[in-house]
Amino acid sequence: MLDIVDPLTNFSVIDFRDMALPIIDNLLARRKLPVVVGGTNYYIESLLWQILITDPKEPPVQVDSSATNPSASIENRSDDRYNVQVDRLNDGDDDDHETAPKKLKFDVRFDGSNEELHQRLMEVDPEMARKLHPNNRRKVIRSLEIFYQHGKTHSELLKAQRNAGGCGLGGPLRYPNSIILWLRCNKKVLDSRLNDRVDGMMEAGLVRELLDFHRRYNEQRIKSNTSPDYTKGIFQSIGFKEFHTYLIQSEEERASEKGKKLLQQGIDDLKLVTRRYARKQDKWVMNRLIRRGDRQVPPVYSLDCTDVTNWNSRVLEPAAAIISAILHGAKPVQRPLNENFENQKTTDSSTNMYNYCKVCERVFVEEHQWQAHLKGLKHKKALKKKKIIAEAAQSQENQLTSS
To answer: What burial class does residue 248 get, using C-beta atoms within 10 Å of its C-beta: 0-12 exposed, 13-18 middle, 19+ buried?
Structure first.
């Protein structure tokens, strides 16, 4: 799965999962050991756990949705429509047999403000809406998509995953005998390596590649008569958006002093966000793998790659010993990081709760942020100011009454 997707092609984590799983299963069927290397942790999670809800792919039957489903009252204009199908099970008592689902087809728009979309989700799936911030537009739209595609709320489907042996993060392990080898490195050494990696990408022609993609994107956009959209897809990936201001300059402007400064700013920004991303990945592993006490997690073994001159003794040989022991049904000498780990974490997005501060007119969904806000200086100042205004208004009203 190297060099398999054109940059102009939409490719989601579900596409990745659906392409990777048959390869893994084929290797297992031939008694070969699949090794998944590198990549985004979220994509690797899609292989290890049954956590993603697949969109229905059967062709829908065209029916009069307004006569069949009350949800059809949702705005239905011809502009900017999102064509989705709904699987809605017939209502009735629970039996040992399932009733056949009806396929309904809707034209549902997912435009509008963040607040409007969040309010729409609040109407169809209040439980999920209370876990999502209105500004988290992508997740709000995804929950709406799931409802209109499956005929069940996102929260219902997630509960079913948890009941199957999962936790707040999703369903059970897909492959119970998996193990995770986590390569770790001293932060200062890692920062230096990441900076060098960016320099190496520049020497290998990163800017030329980005310019070529930008040209192809605009050619395709002009042919399809669509407006540029720099808010999603590859434009949001690390290594692209940092150079966006530079890329949209003319060839003459890119060669000017201003262009050179924009290019250097892009390089500096890319190094910064890459270092931040590495730290974010570390936190992800700790919070979703190491510290999870309520989730089926494969054993996670730490390997120190700080000094690459000791690669064989610190990485290769320990990794081989761990895998060899497990393949022979024995316990590895090295203990996994997540064995008897203290300070376990059980909070996640599934435990978020919608909190609205009327004083500051702000929304918080994570409990620690909400508590920090209530204790914060800005909130206390706003509360004090509101109290003073209310007291002044009351005093003025009393004076008018007495006169």
So the answer is: middle
How many separate helices (H) and strands (E) can be counted in the chain?
Answer: 16, 6
C-alpha–C-alpha distance, residues 131 and 140, integer Å: 10
Instruction: Specify whether the CB–CB gap between 146 and 154 falls below 8 A.
Output: yes
Q: Look-up: residue for tokens 């011809």?
A: 78
DSSP helix/strand/coil, 184: strand
d(CA 228, CA 218): 8
Alpha-carbon span 126 to 122, nearest angstrom: 4
Give the pair of three-digit tokens for residue 223.
């042919």
Tens of pLDDT along the chain (403 residues) come to 888 888 778 788 889 999 999 999 999 999 999 999 987 888 998 999 887 666 655 433 332 333 333 332 222 222 333 333 333 333 333 333 333 333 333 445 667 788 889 999 989 998 888 888 888 888 898 889 888 888 889 888 877 767 666 566 667 889 989 999 999 999 999 999 999 999 999 999 999 998 988 888 888 877 877 776 766 667 777 888 899 889 889 999 999 999 999 999 999 999 999 999 999 999 989 988 888 777 789 999 999 999 999 999 999 999 999 999 999 999 999 999 998 776 666 555 656 676 778 788 787 777 777 788 888 888 888 888 888 888 888 878 777 777 6
Beta bridge partner(s), residue 340: none
**CB neighbour burial string for 38-49, b if at least 16 within 10 angstroms, e if fewer:** eeeeeebbbbbb
SS3 292: strand
How far apart (Å, rounded) are the C-alpha atoms in residues 267 and 242?
A: 8
Instruction: Match 């793998």 to its residue by tokens.
Output: 289
